[in-house]
User: Which sequence fits this backbone?
């Protein structure tokens, strides 16, 4: 079976750092995606991890541990525009399974 | 490069009516996906096409939902008859090859309200 688990909601203040965790169980695991989705908009690609370790891309970093079935998305220097839902998605063979998403609210 | 096009943007219907959504993927993308996203949830795959063939429709409620991609380009998703629980955003996405490790390009979605 396939199961993706991430927190429903998180809050943080502008300028802070926040870490959004994701655990997954999926057959034929190929890698882990993170997508950002602003309210009323389509998801947009943030990152893809296939190997263990941390990948940094500007203010956003993503980490993967394949042995633990665990990933996190790290957002630094939070801005108001980062208020959105963050979707964790596990890639299997020809299939991508999304989690329910973590709604992040950034306050001044 | 043009993105994934979807129409209509919004649709309001009464239960038991029928509705159809249209999607045109990024040019050259072999794989097209229809996802259903209920408010507060992540996208759920309804059907995946590779060119004009179906790769996965295991979560498509086939008694009321149908989809086609006849020429391997654009696609339509139909619901007949609609139920209240079909209220959701219907997202179309495409990718070049359909491998599990490809990023998806999403359209803006069609927001369906069933009254």
Assistant:
């Amino acid at each position: 079976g396939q199961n993706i688990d991430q927190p429903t909601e998180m809050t943080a203040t502008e300028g802070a750092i926040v870490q959004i965790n994701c655990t997954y169980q999926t057959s034929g695991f190929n890698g882990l995606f993170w997508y950002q989705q602003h309210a009323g908009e389509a998801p947009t690609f943030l990152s893809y991890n296939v190997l263990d370790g941390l990948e940094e891309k500007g203010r956003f970093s993503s980490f993967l541990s394949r042995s633990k079935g665990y990933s996190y998305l790290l957002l630094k220097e939070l801005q108001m525009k980062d208020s959105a839902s963050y979707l964790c998605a596990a890639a299997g063979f020809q299939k991508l399974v999304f989690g329910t998403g973590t709604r992040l609210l950034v306050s001044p | 490069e043009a993105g994934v096009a979807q129409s209509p943007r919004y649709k309001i219907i009464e239960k038991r009516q029928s509705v159809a959504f249209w999607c045109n993927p990024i040019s050259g993308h072999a794989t097209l996906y229809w996802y259903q996203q209920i408010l507060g949830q992540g996208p759920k795959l309804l059907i995946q096409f590779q060119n004009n063939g179906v790769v996965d429709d295991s979560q498509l409620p086939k008694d009321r939902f149908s989809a086609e991609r006849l020429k391997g380009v654009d696609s339509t998703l139909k619901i007949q008859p609609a139920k209240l629980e079909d209220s959701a955003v219907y997202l179309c996405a495409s990718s070049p090859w359909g491998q599990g490790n490809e990023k998806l390009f999403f359209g803006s979605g069609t927001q369906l309200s069933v009254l």
